[in-house]
Amino acid sequence: MSQDLDALIGQLLSDPAYASGRRAFPRTVSREDADAIADLVQREVDRGVTARAESAARDGMRIACCRGCTGCCEEMVLVYAAEAERIAAWLRRPENATVREGFQSRYLGWRKSVADAPARLTELVSRDDQEGYETAHVTQWRRRVLCAFNVDGDCSIYDVRPVACRNAHAVDTAEHCVGDDPSGASATRLQFKPLDDFLARVRRLERATHHALGQAPKRPEALCDAVARRL
Length: 231
Prior knowledge:
Elements: H1 3-12, H2 16-20, H3 31-58, E1 78-79, H4 81-91, H5 97-114, H6 117-126, H7 130-141, E2 150-151, E3 154-155, H8 163-166, H9 193-212, E4 221-222, H10 223-230
Antiparallel strand pairs: 1-4, 2-3
Helix pairs in contact: 3-4, 3-9, 4-10, 6-7
C-alpha cells in the first residue's frame, strides 16, 4: 500500500461521522482514489476468505461454493460508490468491450424484472431499518432474478466483483442457496472472526468513501444500476 493511500484510508476511518454522513470529509477524493481503495479492500477480503476456507478444512468442514452455483447471484447486491467506480472503470477498458456490451444488452431485461426493488432496498438502508431490509431482500431473492453480470453461470466481472460477492459462502452443501428452496431451510454459513471483524471495518470505509465522493448519505445502489449509470 502506498503511503498516500494508507494515509487517505486512515483519514476516512478517523471519524465515524464520515461514514454516517453527518460530517463532510475535508479533502477531495477522486475516482482514481476510490478505485485504489476498492482494489485494496477486495484483495484483502480474498486473503481473508482463503484463510477462512483453510480454517474450515482443518475443522473438517467444506466450503460448498463453486463455479456455476448461481444462488447468490440471484440476491440483490447493493454497493457504494467506490466499488461501482472500480467496476465501471474496468468495463471501460478496450479489452473488456465485449463484457461491457453483454452487460448492457442484459441490463434492460434485469431492470424490468427487478422493478422497484432497488429503490425500496436503498430506502430501507438509508433509514437504518435492518429488519425491513432483510425481509425485502429475501422477498426479492425468492423471485430468482439473475444478476445481469452473470453469463451462463459465470460472473463476467469476476476479477472486480464486489466484496459482498467475494464473501458469499455456504458450508457442506449449497442445496439451500436458492431463494425459493421448498424446504425453507437456510444455507449454513461459517463465522470466522478475523474476517468478520475486517468486513465491519470495510463497511465503514466504503460508506466514508461514498460520502467523500459526494454521493447521497447512506444510499448505496443496486450493483447493476450503479455500474450502468457510470458507463
